[in-house]
């Protein structure tokens, strides 16, 4: 017998990129704290490359949060092409998954009333399905509001020039953010003839058609960009959708995963004396670069905790989960580990980043500027040295250094290489100089603001509550 009243559900469609996936599931958990009667259904697409597994994370969520269920969509096999641009590969897999998304929504809607369909912005292809099925479609933007402002303004930039960003060699003025060098745009959009450029442009045209955009940030951190968005300056030719800042959303549990070596080592260090270097799931350096980092750290005399991964293989494969454990003795300069054993600890491949950043001994963070890492550092009150490597990270560095003033920039050459001298200068400046002190004070102020945003009556809680309320009507 069919029940007369169906239960309400929210369907979420994350990008398979591990950082995007985890922050969307965390958003799902947050939604449940506001409306526990909802059931959350998460559609899973297999990534076109492997960069660490989400299996144990999914198992943990499934075990601890019964209201969240996972639906694995059929695997898409891409034609073997020469394009290894990872954004393009993700877009392709998501585009080809559209029929499966349609099926999943139809299937879920047989037993639930779907109140909202929340897509990662990479999944914009599925907005049309939500419209067809009369389900409000929202975007979840996993980077900051500054990046959202630039993404919304992208069609306007596209229309004002016929040149690619890589050929401009100029500074551009975008609403709500500091002047940005054309070389600071992600490599995915630096060439207008690139397929990824076309996809990002199509995505930007979808923002006004959505029911709203949920952003993993908080109001005080990016006030100017958020004002430019809400004033309609970023989408001058159309309607700006409502924007909900609900962050910082970060995973706080299960952060040690049995890895106690580095936490034990931190216990024996002085308060705020250690600089932590860690570069995300896709952040790989050549052996030459690793040796420059080592010499810079050694010469700086600073205490350090450094996560080292194997250099990328020559095959240019995106399957980095298959990389073997690094052989530190052969990768790092002769005698380095021995000479620095009183001052530093080098760990292989992985460290419990949130636990490390929240440890009292950690006083600075050299980061690739991935947005999740930025929010983790802000929430822990740890100032940064910004060393962007890929995706929108150069853009994030601009925001961290020029706008938020919670990081100092690492200086690289035009090929992105950083000398040992610059590493030494970067870490010493953060740990010892007046500019480092001011960045530290500002980061601690932002830590307090983040805490306030997530507290009763705080901006992120109010935004979340407004969003969930809107589904009740």
UniProtKB/TrEMBL annotation:
Say which domain of life the source belongs to: Eukaryota
Q: What is this protein called?
A: Uncharacterized protein
Provenance organism: Manihot esculenta (Cassava)
């Amino acid at each position: 017998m069919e029940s007369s009243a169906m239960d309400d559900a929210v369907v979420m469609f994350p990008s398979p990129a591990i950082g995007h996936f985890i922050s969307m599931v965390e958003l799902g958990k947050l939604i449940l704290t506001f409306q526990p009667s909802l059931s959350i259904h998460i559609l899973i697409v297999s990534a076109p490359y492997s960069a660490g597994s989400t299996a144990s994370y999914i198992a943990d969520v499934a075990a601890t949060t019964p209201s969240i269920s996972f639906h694995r969509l059929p695997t898409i096999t891409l034609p073997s092409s020469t394009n290894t641009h990872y954004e393009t590969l993700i877009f392709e897999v998501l585009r080809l998954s559209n029929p499966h998304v349609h099926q999943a929504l139809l299937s879920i809607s047989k037993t639930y009333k779907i109140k909202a369909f929340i897509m990662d912005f990479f999944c914009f292809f599925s907005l049309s399905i939500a419209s067809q099925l009369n389900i409000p479609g929202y975007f979840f933007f996993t980077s900051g509001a500054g990046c959202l402002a630039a993404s919304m303004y992208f069609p306007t930039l596209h229309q004002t020039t016929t040149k690619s960003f890589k050929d401009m060699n100029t500074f551009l003025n975008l609403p709500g953010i500091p002047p940005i060098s054309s070389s600071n745009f992600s490599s995915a959009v630096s060439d207008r003839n690139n397929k990824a450029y076309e996809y990002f442009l199509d995505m930007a045209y979808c923002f006004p058609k959505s029911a709203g955009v949920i952003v993993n940030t908080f109001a005080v951190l990016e006030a100017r960009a958020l004002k430019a968005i809400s004033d309609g300056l970023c989408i001058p030719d159309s309607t700006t959708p409502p924007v909900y800042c609900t962050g910082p959303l970060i995973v706080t549990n299960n952060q040690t995963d049995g890895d106690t070596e580095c936490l034990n080592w931190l216990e024996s260090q002085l308060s705020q004396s250690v600089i932590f270097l860690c570069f995300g799931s896709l952040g790989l350096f050549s052996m030459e670069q690793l040796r420059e980092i080592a010499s810079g750290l050694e010469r700086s005399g600073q205490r350090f905790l450094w996560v080292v991964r194997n250099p990328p293989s020559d095959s240019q494969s995106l399957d980095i989960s298959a990389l073997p454990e690094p052989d530190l003795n052969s990768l790092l300069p002769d005698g380095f580990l021995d000479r620095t054993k009183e001052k530093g600890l080098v760990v292989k491949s992985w460290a419990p980043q949130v636990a490390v950043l929240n440890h009292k001994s950690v006083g600075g963070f050299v980061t690739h500027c991935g947005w999740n890492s930025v929010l983790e550092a802000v929430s822990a009150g740890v100032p940064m040295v910004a060393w962007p490597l890929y995706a929108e990270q150069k853009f994030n560095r601009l925001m961290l250094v020029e706008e938020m003033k919670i990081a100092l920039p690492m200086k690289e050459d035009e090929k992105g290489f950083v000398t040992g001298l610059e590493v030494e200068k970067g870490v010493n400046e953060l740990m010892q100089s007046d500019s480092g002190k001011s960045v530290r004070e500002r980061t601690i102020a932002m830590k307090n603001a983040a805490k306030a945003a997530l507290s009763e009556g705080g901006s992120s809680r109010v935004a979340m509550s407004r969003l969930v309320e809107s589904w009740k009507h």
